[in-house]
Amino acid sequence: MVEQHDYVDQLIAQWHRQRPAIDVAPMGVIGRISRLSRLLERQIEELFAAHGLKGGRFDVLAALVRAGEPHRLTPTQLYNSLLVSSGAITNRIDRLVDEGLVTRGSHASDRRSLPVQLTEAGRERFDETLMAHVKNEEQLLAALDHRERELLAQILRRWLIALGDQDEPAEALADDA
C-alpha cells in the first residue's frame, strides 16, 4: 500500500530542509488540527447556508432549544452560553427576528434583559437543519471507524481538559462574529 501524504507533510519536509536541527513534529499535530478545523467549518457553513442560516445563528437557535421549554433566554444568557461579543449576539438576534425565527420580548427597558424566544418557524428550521447537520457530520467522520472516533474523542477531551476547557468554554474561544 502506498503511503499517502497531506499538505502538512509538505510543510514539515520544507522545515526539515530549512531547519534540520529543530524538531517540528508538534507542527504536524497543530497544523493538521488547524487545517482540519478550517475544512470542517467550511463544509458545515455550506450546509447551514443551504438551510438559510449561518453557523452563529444556528448556535443561537440551538441554545434556545437546549434551554428547554419555553425555549426562551435573555441576550445576556445567550452571550454567556455562546461566548461571543454582545454586539454579535445583538446582530444574530436581530437577523433571526427579521427572519421570524425568534421573537424578542417588549416589557423591559434594557435590551439585554428582553427575553428571546424561539418561534414555531424557528423550531421547524432548526429541526430541519439539525437533522441535515448530524448527517453531514457523520459524513465528515466517514474516514474513521467507530473505534477511531471514540479514541479521537477521548484524546481531544483529555487535551481540552489539560488546556483548562472544562465546565464552560474558555474565554479565548469567544469570537466577535
Note down, in words, how this protein is organized.
The protein has 177 residues and is mainly alpha-helical. The protein has 2 domains: 8-50, no CATH class; 52-164, Arc Repressor Mutant, subunit A, CATH 1.10.10. It is 62% helix and 5% strand. The chain contains 7 helices and 3 strands; from the N terminus they run H-H-H-E-H-H-E-E-H-H. The protein has helices at residues 7-18, 25-50, 55-66, 75-82, 86-98, 120-140, 146-162; strands spanning 72-73, 102-104, 116-118. It has a 3-stranded antiparallel sheet with strand order 1-3-2. Helix 3 (55-66) packs across helix 6 (120-140) and helix 4 (75-82) packs across helix 5. The radius of gyration is 20 Å and the shape is elongated. The termini are far apart. The mean pLDDT is 90.
